[in-house]
Amino acid sequence: MDNxxxxxxxxxxxxxxxxxxxxxxxxRDATARKPKIEGVECPACGAKTxxxxxxxxxxxxxxxxxxxxxxxxxxxxxxxxDGEHELLFADIEAKNPIGFPGYKVKLGELKAKTGLDDACVxxxxxxxxxxxxxxxxxxxxxxxxxxxxxxxxxxxxxxxAAEAKLPLIVFASSGGARMQEGIxxxxxxxxxxxxxxxHSDNGGLFISVLSHPTTGGxxxxxxxxxxxxxxxxxxxxxxxGPRVIEQxxxxxxxxGFQLSEFQLEHGFADAVxxxxxxxxxxxxxxxxxxxxxxxx
Length: 296
Hints:
Layout: H1 3-33, E1 40-41, E2 48-49, H2 51-56, H3 72-79, E3 85-88, H4 103-114, E4 120-127, E5 130-137, H5 148-164, E6 168-174, H6 182-201, E7 206-214, H7 216-219, E8 228-231, H8 242-249, H9 260-265, E9 271-272, H10 275-291
Parallel strand pairs: 5-6, 6-7, 7-8, 8-9
Antiparallel strand pairs: 1-2, 3-4, 4-5
Helix pairs in contact: 5-6
């Protein structure tokens, strides 16, 4: 091979390497410019959704329809006319009645992180032009568990609704009684149940809306006592969880056991309502209740 051939070969190799380097550089540049996908990952399909998009979709995965837990403030904005409402009993916050180790610190951390005083928020406003009192649970605060503060808020909301002749709507989403408050948390089951019973005896309407999950002492008390019980799709509703029941009875449970559709079929719920249809449904129920002669 003469010099001209060698030079041509070297030139070809050089151009080939240069092309590869240019391609590699272009790939790196494109990768660097590609925006990172951030946000919340759907536990059902794995798709990631931007926080803003998730809020716009009412915390429903647009890829598979999975329902994310809905923060209390967003829930209130979604049901009240123009999102306008007035908070009630905001001064009630969790204490540490039995001196549970580390509980006070944990409460402080959760308050700072969520902006909540405890696991539920109470408010009043209008839904379809009809005044109503609402209690909304928020699972970001110790899985929406019910302690003394939560029980007090639910009780006061029921008493306020009874006195003002207003319907009461509770959006339950809870892991049950709060173990850090021991027997004091269990006492809230009887306390809240008695409060909604007095509201009912006074002619008031109580609508219970069950979202995922509604379990334990909350299910075993006021959440099951609604004059009308609505549920969001595929919400887990029950006292003990399916795994506990399977281990206890030693049998395999049917598919969909304790989900809202199962509860509807077995008479525990009156209707399963899509989240985006919930406000319209509540407005219609309040309208019918008013026309039925209920005092306001």
